[in-house]
């Protein structure tokens, strides 16, 4: 199918991604892993695709490919050739060998494009393959992205009993470490159903070619009655030049990092709290919590009245949306409740990070630049001899939970998080006394400090009227 071969330096089979999601039977959180499909499961995987994918994928379902013996044999032969590349990935629940999900990954080479017009006897298989190749060729992937290979797929499937648990998203997310290990800069796939298009967009895939199915029919593709509107070629670029930090695949997500006791919100009774990874399905709620609380409390934002400038509010919201993709942000819950008690928008700052963030809003620009100024003055990369560290852009506790030491415990949770992910330092610009004191309690030291009056002299844009804190501090803590 292609001249590409899996690098000998990449162990096989190996685990590419681990995560937590709901069990299909108990609805308890359990661990899952996405790994290479082992050779002894090749036929099981083909059977899974035959049983589920052919009945779910819009074109195959419309043309009743599952009821076509010739077509069934031909498409299964395609999958058998695909798995020989040793790129396909399978999802298992920890402790089980049941196939939860599959992605029939394959590497497509530039020279293969001229050879891939295989003849099929089945009209249904021929229509499915020809439509897929039409979308791929229209994307001009080799020319546009200047690559000789890209990671593609001939089918993504999740077992019906495990759907609506975000598994497709996590299976697609595993393509990033896989591409990095293989040295492949691009992943591109034709996604024919919203059930795969939406997860792909969550992971970062972008629309490259979008065609309405009724327009494809007018162009001569015999596709039958397709129940969805769009067919999409979507692409994900993988940066190999700046190999920035990514969360280790062997660190389950989401994980609980700290448990502690503190007073309840409405009484002096001691109750249990947990500090854990912010789950993906709470990203937007967490960001709105910060919009509703943090930008009114944080000294710089409050002094600039950032909340009164919609463009700046949208700017800071967009930044937080980028940061949560690191999957390192932490949230605090009271045990037995899903109410957000507190948040720390933690992420990993890397020396290799590209400086391509575009700030929206004049007031957010002034606050952001002041924080960057402090970070540069602190110069923790050189001061502590690290190439990355756990940073943060926002620590917030819900008003009704304040005065209970919650901020201290959220900051303390950075220690086990850093240890698990191999980070040797955590460092943050703390702009308020209410965060500086908890940070000192946990063990943070001052890396750089400046009075707000002196900060104003350094740059007239860094004037923060009415700020109550005396100092702004860059504080750091080594992780042993």
From TrEMBL:
Which Pfam family name is an example for this entry? Acetyltransf_1
Identify the InterPro entries for this entry: Acyl_CoA_acyltransferase (IPR016181), GNAT_dom (IPR000182)
Q: Where is the N-acetyltransferase domain?
A: 293-460
Q: What SUPFAM superfamilies does the annotation carry?
A: Acyl-CoA N-acyltransferases (Nat)
Q: Mind telling me which PANTHER family this protein's record contains?
A: ARYLALKYLAMINE N-ACETYLTRANSFERASE-LIKE 7, ISOFORM A, N-ACETYLTRANSFERASE-RELATED
The protein depicted here goes by the name N-acetyltransferase domain-containing protein
Q: Lineage, please?
A: Eukaryota, Metazoa, Ecdysozoa, Arthropoda, Hexapoda
